[in-house]
Amino acid sequence: MMMMTPHPLRALATLAAALILSACSTFMPPTQVEPNLPTQWYAPLPHQGTVGGLTQWWERQGDPLLVELIAAAQAVSPSVSQALARVEAARAQQATASGALLPNLNAQYAASRGVSQPNIPVTNTQQLGLQSQWEIDLVGANRAVSRAAQANVDGSQAQWHDARVSVAAEVANLYYSQSTCLQQLALAERDATSRGETARLTEINAKAGFLAPSLGAMARASAADGNSRLTQQRALCDLNTKALVALTAIPEPDLKAKMAAAPVNAKQNAPISVASVPAQTIMQRPDVFSAERDVMVASAQVGAAKAQRLPRLSLNGSIAGTRLTTGGVDTEGTTWSFGPLAVSLPVFDGGQRAAAVKASEANYEAVVVAYRGKVRQAVREVEEALITLASTEARTQDAIVSTKGYAESLAATQSRFGQGLASLVELEDARRNALASESAQLALALERN
Fold first, then answer.
1. Is the pTM of this model over 0.70?
2. So what's the pLDDT on residue 278?
């Protein structure tokens, strides 16, 4: 009985089909994990928790100067520039990973001149051809690397947005701090002027014998204290200006002119809106989105490491046109080859591939823990912000009433002091209360911003 020997290519094709079927089962752990978010916010929600769009948030503040300063700071920020460079690098890596899924094609040209055998004329040889090589991704190793590279691109883009948000927040905080500082400076100037005038009148009355010399000393001390507060407040405003100049790279005279021409109006601030479902708010954060993409990258790395332990299939091919010139006679022809179709099966590597799988799995577990930690931290920050916002809103009305009452009390006490019906101690006490109340109201407005 005659035995039929199977064709080598047919046997390899059968093996490839079997490998493809076996590769249908995924090697990767879950690319998405449950973040374990709470089902609701436990801090009070502003405006009944209506969903607000985050697009063009800073434009909605209604302050063109703030938008201009943020844009200037983002344009010169080293952190934003570095994040953008990481995005470009990730895109380049993704292009490299995607290219590994396709065949490589190279063009070659070769020319030679020589005598290959005795008594044979000189031969000129020219050859122009194409060579191709393709690793067939049977078990999904290259696809896993490509998916990891794409997730890395998404994550790096989220980090870029996170850097931009951080810079914008830093500029906005300084911008509102400077606005509040300038208002505090104006308050300190009025207070110092008032204390100085009181000290002048008290000194006149003390020299005339109508008041005790100790009251004149008290008035002078109060005036000096007011001037000291004014000097300190002016220095704080100068420090804020220096910080804004460093962030935006705008020359200091230009920045001061811009801020003087466009004072901040607190009533312009956009309303605060927070989604009623935590996931709708938390998952919009760039840092959380980036951490989620890190999980996808780590999962794909596990799949790629496991795929390295499986057989690999590669295919080569070439085609070339050849021209030989010998003794004035030209001979032309075409050569081609298909193969070899080769299967590579890892046999022994001293445990390197197994160690790579364990390392990638350990990294995956660490990334998952980091992701869930990032989500918990994000929930905490939002909850704390909601509590702070609710607290400032609840205290605002009381602060307004307090400031108005102490201002009226100060005006009445100053009038009585001018008529000799109130003591300097009463006047200083009323002035101190009025100053503290107005300063607290300005600080409360800054806290809400």
1. no
2. 63
Neighbours of 159 (CB within 10 A): 23
Query: How many angstroms separate the CA atoms of 125 and 246, rounded?
Result: 68
Token pair 């507060």 is found at 229
Sequence length of the chain is 449
SS (H, E, C) 70-131: HHHHHHHCHHHHHHHHHHHHHHHHHHHHHHCCCCEEEEEEEEEEECCCCCCCCEEEEEEEEE
CB 49 within 8 A of CB 386: no
Quick one: pLDDT at residue 276?
Answer: 55
| pLDDT given for residue 20 in this prediction | 46
* pLDDT of res. 362: 95
Residue 408 to residue 427: CA distance in whole angstroms: 12
Distance of CA 419 to the CA centre of its chain: 62
The pLDDT of residue 252: 92
- Return the structure tokens found at 289: 């989105």
d(CA 71, CA 7): 68
How far apart CA 219 and CA 95 sit, in angstroms, is: 76
Amino acid code (one letter) for 296: M
What are the residues whose beta carbons fall under 8 Å from the beta carbon of 179, sequence distance 6 or more?
Answer: 259, 263, 264
pLDDT recorded at residue 254: 93
Residue-wise DSSP of 173-209? HHHHHHHHHHHHHHHHHHHHHHHHHHHHHHHHHHHTT
Beta bridge partners of 430: none
Token code pair at residue 148:
């990891």
Distance CA 382, CA 284 (A): 12
Q: List, as one string, the DSSP characters of 223-246.
A: HHHHHHHHHHHHHHHHHHHHHHHH
| Gyration radius from the chain CA atoms | 38
Give me the residues of the chain with pLDDT under 70, please: 1-27, 36-61, 263-281, 449
Interatomic CA distance for residues 275 and 56, integer angstroms: 17
The encoded tokens of residue 146 equal: 């490509």
Backbone angles phi, psi at 383, to 5 degrees: -60, -45
Q: At what angle do helices 78-99 and 141-207 cross, to 10 degrees?
A: 170
Residues 6+ apart with CB under 8 A from 320: 108, 127, 128, 129, 130, 334, 335, 336
Q: What are phi and psi of 316, to 5 degrees?
A: -115, 155
